[in-house]
Every structure is written in C-alpha cells, then in structure tokens.
Amino acid sequence: MKFLIEGGKALSGKISVQGSKNSALPILAATLLIKGKSVIHNCPKITDVDAAIDILKDFGCVVTRSDRTVTVDASYVKNCNVSDYLMRRMRSSILFLGPVLSRLKKARFSSPGGCEIGLRPIDLHLWALRLLGAEINEKSGIIDCKAEKGLKGNRIHLSFPSVGATENILLACVCAKGTTVLSNAAREPEIIDLAAFLNESGAHIYGAGESTVVIVGTDSLHSASHNVIADRIVGATYLFSSAITGGEIEIDNIIPTHLESVFPVLEETGCKIKRTDTSVFLSSPERLSRVKSVRTLPFPGFPTDLQSPLTALLSVAEGTSVVTENIFENRYKYISELVRLGANIRVEGSSAIVDGVKKLYGTSVCATDLRGGFALVIAALKAQGETVINNIHHIDRGYEAAEKTLSSLGANIKRIT
Ligand code: EPZ
C-alpha cells in the first residue's frame, strides 16, 4: 500500500483529531479486569486497535464495535496466552500482562521482540511484577508468569519513568491485596486517562499524572463507559503538516495543555499559535526559521513521538537545527528517506543536525516506522512534484485515514492499494 502525494499546496482548514492510540490501547487492556461490559468511546479506527481487539477476543472476551465505540464483555476470560504472532503484530500487547496476571493469576506471553525504533526491553515491567509477588520465568522467548496467591501491593520506584511499565503496574495493582506506592512514574496524559477509566470502574488510584502514584487495591471493578482523550501526537503532527506548507489550521478538539512543550518550538520556527481550553489555531510563515536545539524527554518534555515529524518540518527551515533523541536508541531510520527527498541532515550520536534547504524534490521513499513514516508525508507535502510513500501500513497503525484528513486541508494525496 502506498501514498501518492503531489507537494506544494498550502494546507489550511479546520479538523478534529482522533482518539489517542496510546490511551485506547492500555484502556482496552484494562477491560480484562472487569467481569462485565466496558464501553470505550472515541477509539480510533487504526490497525493497532484492531490488533488489541483481536487479542481481547483471543482471551475469550466478546467484543463489538460500532463506529468508534468498542464494547468489551470480559465476563468469561479463559485464555492467558499471547501468541508469538499476536505479540509480533503489536508489541504493546505486553500491556495485557498486568491485567491477565491479576485476573487469572497466571500468564504465558511470547516475549515482545524489538521494533523499528529500538530494542524495547521490558525489564522494568517484569521487575515491578516480581515486586508485586509474581513468579516470572523467561526462557526461549516465552515469559511464564504465576501469582497463585494473587498480587500484593508494594513500594515500587522506577529507575526510568517508563510509560508502559507505569501502565502495567497500574493494571496489576488495582485489584491487588493492599496498597502500592509507585514513585518515578510516567506522567504522560495517557496515564491520567487510563487511571480515569479504572477509577470510573471502581479502582482507587491517587495522583496519576504525578511522579508518585498511590493505588489502593480493591476486590473487584464494575462496568463503566469512557471517552478516550484526543491524540496529542496526531494533533501536533497535523499542525506540522500545515506549518511546512505555509498554511493555517485549527484543531477544535485537542487539549492544548498536552502540548505545552511543542508550542514554544513551533513559535521559534516563526509560527503563531492561538489557543483556547479545547482548541489550537496555528498560522505559519512563508519560510520557517530553524530551531536551535530540541531534545526529547519524558512528559512534560518534548515527546519522542514528535521527533521525526519535527525533523521533517525543520528540513526546510532557514538555518541549522539540532534535534536530540534521548528516549529510544534507534529512532532515526527515517532520515535516509528524508535525504532522498533532498533534505540535508546528518546524525551524530543521538542528535540529528538539520541544515535547512530551500526545496525538497518528490521521489519514491519507504516508511520505516509509524512516526518516521508520517515524517515522510510531511516532507512530501512540501516537496516539488510527486512523492510515492511505500509501506504505509506503518502509518495506518496510528493515524486514522490520514489521506482523508490531509485532503480535507487541501492536500493532493491518494492511497494506492
Ligand atoms: C510508549 O511506549 C508509547 N507506546 C510510545 O509510542 C512512546 O514513544 C513511548 O511510550 C514514550 O513516550 C504506547 O503507549 C503504546 P517507555 P513504551 O516504556 O511504553 C526503555 C508511538 O509512536 N525501557 O516509556 O514502550 C525503552 O527502551 C509509540 O505511538 C526499558 O529500558 O515507552 C525506551 O528507551 C512509539 N525497560 C524508554 O524506556 C522497560 O522495561 C521509554 O520507553 C521499558 C522501557
């Protein structure tokens, strides 16, 4: 599958963004904890959500979907395995480990391999689950877990504020015996959204979104419904898509406080930002200015998921920008594809040195991963002539119908299957 993009048109208009992939996935995993129906609204139509639904069905859940509402009936969960196929299809399936262990007291998962952006170890997840009383054996690619006496609350300090480990700990602790005090927890908005859903279902989580979170275990959770928050990464990606073309764009359902680290970077490029509590309006200059230095950090720092879209944006800015990736060790694979489009970027250690060029030229390129794939789209929207982007299944993992949204803003883009 590929995108054909004819660059050079200014992208302007008003859009709403999809529900957050990185919120919907842990919330769908959380539905395993509820012996009844959970109704999740605003689930994006993306292939990672399709994969999560298939895993829930594999566990014995009855899952129905109407438009962007997913209803999960987890009354009868029987299977506790995640096969190699399912794990390789979506490595964030590791988020099901905590809830399965909590509910069934055992789990047998194929270990999630690395992916295009790094080794993606899960040592922090397993270390924390052992602290909660799980017996875990890792052998020949299989993770065998047992907690016959159930999980027990404990004091846990994460050496790194891992998003996934924080989520797995919340999912494992809400029905554990006793209280868990988690310090150096991830503070991403998706953690707050997961905790909101769990608390709506009867959990007792205090301080989600802060560095220290307290979870008081409860016997059981009950049915609830929840609206997934808007996807901050997708929203910012479309701001960048308009900014590179000299357009102006309004996003009417985003939460601006989720992007506090991004707005100053856009303003340094010369863009103007206006915001209300629930919307953002961006207008952009004819030629963007460089950004001296951006480094990715855990929330509330600049998000690693925007590193590649930002590098694409800066590839045509006037001057030299430096973008440093501090979260993943291999998140620059897309740069060689940007260079094929005429960008002048070199990678030195964990930094990309971006010498802005006046023009990019359309050609054939390949998406390497989800966000790096969209970085190529952003560059193609500016490039002179036609760009073919191959392997767009990477993009479909996290962006719902990207070509429809971009066309609504005036882009000349076609999906070729
Ligand atoms: C989540 O991944 C997101 N995925 C990622 O989004 C996002 O980039 C990342 O958080 C950081 O914000 C989902 O939410 C599904 P981490 P996760 O655990 O949980 C190391 C996207 O594009 N680490 O915070 O895997 C790890 O190797 C995706 O939507 C360990 O060393 O991120 C990485 O260097 C990509 N041991 C760093 O921590 C562990 O046990 C951050 O990882 C866990 C993580």
Question: What's a quick, concise take on this entry?
Answer:
With 417 residues, this protein is an alpha/beta fold.
Descriptive notes:
This protein is an alpha/beta fold and 417 residues long. It has 14 helices and 24 strands. It has helices at residues 21-30, 47-58, 84-89, 97-104, 123-131, 163-173, 189-200, 232-243, 263-268, 307-314, 335-340, 370-382, 393-396, 402-408, and strands spanning 2-6, 13-15, 37-41, 62-66, 69-73, 81-82, 106-110, 135-139, 142-146, 155-157, 179-183, 204-206, 213-216, 224-227, 248-251, 272-275, 280-283, 293-295, 320-324, 344-348, 351-355, 364-366, 386-390, 412-416. The strands form 6 sheets. Strands 22-23-1-24 form a 4-stranded mixed β-sheet. Helix 1 (21-30) runs parallel beside helix 2, helix 1 packs parallel to helix 7 (189-200) and helix 10 packs parallel to helix 12. The chain is elongated and about 65 Å long. The model has no long low-confidence stretch (mean pLDDT 96). Ligand EPZ is lined by residues 21-22, 25, 92, 118, 120-125, 160, 162-165, 186, 304-305, 327-328, 370-371, 398. Ligand EPZ binds at residues 21-22, 25, 92, 118, 120-125, 160, 162-165, 186, 304-305, 327-328, 370-371, 398.
Outline the secondary-structure elements.
Elements: E1 2-6, E2 13-15, H1 21-30, E3 37-41, H2 47-58, E4 62-66, E5 69-73, E6 81-82, H3 84-89, H4 97-104, E7 106-110, H5 123-131, E8 135-139, E9 142-146, E10 155-157, H6 163-173, E11 179-183, H7 189-200, E12 204-206, E13 213-216, E14 224-227, H8 232-243, E15 248-251, H9 263-268, E16 272-275, E17 280-283, E18 293-295, H10 307-314, E19 320-324, H11 335-340, E20 344-348, E21 351-355, E22 364-366, H12 370-382, E23 386-390, H13 393-396, H14 402-408, E24 412-416
Parallel strand pairs: 2-15, 3-14, 6-7, 10-11, 18-19, 22-23
Antiparallel strand pairs: 1-23, 1-24, 3-5, 4-5, 7-9, 8-9, 11-13, 12-13, 15-17, 16-17, 19-21, 20-21
Helix pairs in contact: 1-2, 1-7, 4-6, 5-6, 6-7, 10-12
Bound molecules: ligand EPZ.
